Amino acid sequence: MFAPKKPISLICAPHFWASACVLAALFAVQSTASFAQQPTIGNATNTKNRVSSIGGTTTRQISKGTDVHSNEVVRTGNASSADLKFLDESTIKIGPITEIRLDKFVYDPSRSAGSFVIEATRGALRFVTGKQDQNSYQIKTPFGTLGIRG
After folding, report:
1. 82: closest CA among 49, 56, 54?
2. Could you report the per-residue pLDDT of 65-124, keeping only the tens digit for each?
3. In this predicted structure, which of 28-42, 68-82, 132-146 has the lowest mean pLDDT?
4. Contact 47/74 with Cβ under 8 angstroms?
5. Euclidean distance between CA atoms 88 and 132, whole angstroms
6. Which residues pair with 61 in a beta bridge?
7. Rounded distance, CA 55 to CA 67, Å?
8. What is the per-residue DSSP string for 14-66?
């Protein structure tokens, strides 16, 4: 009277796995593309030991020549350091066990207006301004904001 039905898992299994693989590939591409969405604002000119960058949910290792982007967090480990150079020729030397966020970077070489904001949450750094107006630079810390004057 009733014809036996084939189990759904046997009918859908090939399609299910193909769909799952496509979705997994899309998520992988999306996570690696999160760094590409932000424009490059500079690069690492030197690194020592463990230096990493966190952009969104993606973490990557930084070595000499690696590009850095706005809204990234750069973190150094024990006995580690990094030297970063930006498009306006400003530089940051980051010491061991340091964490900074490259909060905002706006630079147009043909205009004098711009902005460079760094949030230093822990550790030590040395910052040297570049070609932008001195009032364009800010370094935020947990204790206050440093600006360049004079």
Report:
1. 49
2. 999 999 999 999 999 999 999 999 999 999 999 999 999 999 988 876 789 999 999 999
3. 28-42
4. no
5. 7
6. 52
7. 12
8. HHHHHHHHHHHHHHHHHHHHHHHHSPEEEEEEEEES-EEEEETTEEEE--TT-
Counts for the chain of helices (H) and strands (E), in that order: 1, 12
Q: Tokens standing for 132? A: 């932008």
**Pair 82, 102: CB distance under 8 Å:** no
- Residue 148, SS3 per DSSP: coil
DSSP 91-109: EEEE-TT-EEEEEEEE--T
Closest CA to 76 of 42, 49, 57: 49
What pLDDT is recorded for position 128?
92
Rounded to two decimals, what is the model's pTM?
0.73
User: Measured between alpha carbons, how far is 18 from 135 in angstroms, rounded to an integer?
Assistant: 55
Query: In this prediction, what percent of the chain has a pLDDT beyond 70?
Result: 73
Q: Is the pLDDT of residue 6 over 70?
A: no
